[in-house]
Write a structure and sequence with these properties.
The structure is a homodimer.
Chain A lengths: L1 E12 L9 E9 L2 E7 H7 E16 L1 E6 L15 H16 L2 H17 L2 E6 L4 H11 L2 E8 L10 H14 L6 E7 L7 H14 L3 E5 L3 H11 L3 H8 L6 E5 L5 H10 L2 E4 L1 H6 L7 H6 L3 E4 L12 H16 L7 H7 L2 H6 L17 E5 L11 H8 L5 E6 L2 E5 L2 E2 L4 H20 L7
Parallel strand pairs in A: 1-4, 5-6, 6-7, 7-8, 9-10, 10-11, 11-12
Antiparallel strand pairs in A: 1-2, 2-3, 4-13, 13-14, 14-15, 15-16
Helix pairs in contact in A: 3-4, 3-16, 12-13, 12-15, 13-15
């Protein structure tokens, strides 16, 4: 008998790799934070001597969900302003609030709230783009969630940096801070083609190669972005990124709601990833990403919630469902974006886009034990014919019972282990009072 | 001090009528199943002497959600077959399963599962279309949920009836059975234009006037339906219904995903209602209902989940969110289908379509006390800037803490009072074993 840290027996195990497979009455053996084996429960019991053992008799065990695009700290702005035309939303509410409130403290508090929400909903890894990425990384470490913090670059000054050079310099410093951290990874995060000039984008391309990290960027989110690029640069944003050399397997192009067939083919040729954020796209009426078409040409499509200011939750299970539902409607086919395809987008495809698919994204021997148990025994998910279908189409994040990140049991029977829930809520309420007053009286700018 | 049955004080009350209003620190006074008054909490405490009092300090109290289109018993087929082309889904799975399994017992068990799910999710009234509507009504009464049972009519024989005449006769009998029931209402439910001939539709038109009940029908769900109507009748289905005289305030036209501008105008002129089922439309790739356009012309648009075989849940809060999100994308405007508009679709508009808006759909004096409390104090809905926005865009049905139907407290702090949850789940599991075996071995027909 081999002594191990943990053995988790589950009614169903959905490993994601291989695709569209469900293991019945299997177990995951975990030791020193990694998956040792996925095997029949009876076999596991005869081979391993676990220090801790869990039996999940009505549950599906899936890989931790990977939220491939968010702005975690913005959770403090959840629902501040909704149902408004895009420019009114940004000019009168979001941007004034950001200018007034963003600080290291705001980011720490916002990320803790976001991370708590994400863990409770089965997200074990998030890819972030925001100011004070060092604080995002520190909050993630404190909470025990995996994060890819975005080394943000934008052409205008903020409280985080004055100009592209300073953004880059501070970004490189953040990268260095987390070089040895097992949970915090980094990515360059130039905000969007329309907010970053050619020169910094070229430097980012070179630096991303040197540091071997991905590039996380909003691309082709709105019609307007394309129109203004044609005016300023004489080409569409994607063509401009291509000319600068950014179309590569490192690129995570977020949104892509306005694309022509040739652009889809070009993204496929370059092995770039697309990050689909369907609920944000719907809420902001950005357009429809042709997910099924991207996949037909072999593009790796991941999933993200976007920030809570435009969603308004960080619920990856709901996003997975929305992606499957909307993908069918956009493709005009009820067999497009099957449940297992959407679940793969929400896990392994995200890890691959982030360059960490050797670490997470599926339940395979050798990977980090990033795992989520979903209780399907409740009446809302009865009866169970096809566990993958049930998780995606009927599952609710509130049925997530247990979560492990790198083998650490961070959600135990719905209770957060690493987060003081009451303190997180109290801070959210305190921020609300300040933010709300300022929003009502019009945003004055501190910068 | 006036003695009353119940006083419910809530942090926020969202009455739906008036529209887009939130009452802060108010109370609802309930007596003999009805709402006596909605008033400031302090005033209520000095005016009323309640037998039972509730204080919901972090909650929004909203009218019970009205699920305006479902096939409740089909919940037993939840997830039986997904991600398939429409005709394969129907021919190889759903229709064989229905032919084999539908019975009074199946409907009783299925409706109890569905009603339990709906109550736990804040739905206090559902509009049903299925076989054995008498059993649907009896199950609804037993569980204590309000129901409009559909007097189904379809041209082909089933275990419920042989031909249109028998469907009608049995329907009239069901109507009589529930004439005096305070919770069970009826509607004619001719399945769809392509499954019911002109003659029975004409009779339904006459009978609906006589009995003063609505007509609940799938209309313009798919392109195919329109094409085949043009072939068989030389006109589009809606034009045919118009010629038969069914376009009236009694009509609840469900889906309407393929409509021309003139048809929208005609529906508006006739004061017919549209029932929007966005998640089913997405999942079956039926098309996009132009909800915002219908509303611009003054059409009453209600919301429904459709059956759990094509959704796969009966989650009206999620449907409300999807309607708001999708409505913006379809209209191409982030200010279309605001949160309060979608919540009104899910409550008062449903009651109006069903002809019971004098009874339910809003928190107003004189109406039945059909009410739902949603706990916004949890971290997933923090901070709270705008309660309506929070309920619609971030609310999860698992945050529904308490539900009252006609003043009866049927969900108490998440616990179902009228349903034996374990028994409902056990029956769902037992049905699953039988249905699953038959589905795997190909559907043989008993009829």
């Amino acid at each position: 008998m081999q002594p191990i840290d943990t053995l988790i027996k589950a009614r169903w195990i959905i490993p994601v790799e291989p695709d569209d497979v469900v293991y019945d009455q299997h177990a995951v053996a975990v030791h020193e934070g990694r998956i040792l084996d996925v095997l029949p429960a009876t076999e596991a019991e005869s081979r391993f001597q676990p220090a801790v053992s869990h039996t999940l008799s009505e549950h599906a065990l899936i890989p931790g969900l990977v939220n491939s695009h968010t702005h975690a700290a913005m959770t403090l702005f959840r629902g501040l302003a909704d149902d408004l035309p895009l420019m009114e939303w940004l000019n009168d509410h979001i941007w004034p609030a950001e200018r007034r409130w963003i600080s290291d403290e705001f980011v720490q508090d916002g990320v803790r709230l976001a991370a708590a929400e994400m863990l409770r909903g089965g997200t074990t890894c998030f890819n972030d783009m925001y100011f004070f990425p060092d604080d995002t990384g520190r909050a993630a470490t404190a909470v025990g969630v995996r994060a890819v913090v975005g080394l943000i670059v934008i052409d205008f000054p903020t409280v985080w940096a004055r100009d592209a050079d300073e953004y880059l310099m501070k970004g490189l410093d953040v990268h260095d801070q987390f070089r040895a951290d097992p949970l915090v990874h980094t990515a360059f995060a130039p905000h969007a083609p329309y907010t970053v000039a050619d020169a910094p984008l070229e430097r980012i391309g070179v630096l991303a190669e040197e540091l071997d990290i991905p590039i996380h960027m909003h691309v082709h989110e709105t019609d307007d972005e394309i129109r203004s690029s044609l005016e300023s640069h004489g080409k569409r944003p994607l063509a401009r990124l291509d000319d600068i050399g950014l179309l590569s397997p490192r690129l995570m192009a977020v949104h892509m709601t306005h694309v022509e067939e040739a652009e889809i083919a070009r993204v496929a040729d370059c092995n770039a990833s697309v990050v689909h954020a369907p609920e944000s796209n719907l809420k902001l009426a950005s357009g429809f990403c042709p997910v099924s078409r991207f996949q037909q040409l072999g593009v790796n499509v991941a999933l993200g919630t976007d920030g809570a200011a435009s969603n308004n939750d960080l619920d990856m299970l709901s996003e997975t469902r929305t992606a499957a539902l909307l993908g069918k409607a956009v493709a005009g086919s009820p067999s497009a974006i099957a449940a297992h395809t959407s679940l793969r987008m929400a896990t392994l495809n995200g890890a691959r886009a982030l360059g960490i698919d050797h670490i997470t994204g599926s339940l395979e021997a050798g990977k980090s034990a990033d795992m989520v148990a979903i209780d399907l025994g409740q009446l809302e998910t009865q009866p169970v014919y096809h566990p993958i279908s049930q998780v995606v189409y009927a599952g609710n994040r509130r049925q997530v019972s247990d979560v492990w990140v790198a083998g650490r049991h961070v959600l135990k029977d719905r209770a957060l282990v690493t987060v003081d829930e009451a303190a997180v809520i109290a801070k959210a309420k305190a921020w609300r009072e300040r933010i709300w007053e300022a929003d009502r009286h019009g945003g004055e700018c501190d910068w």
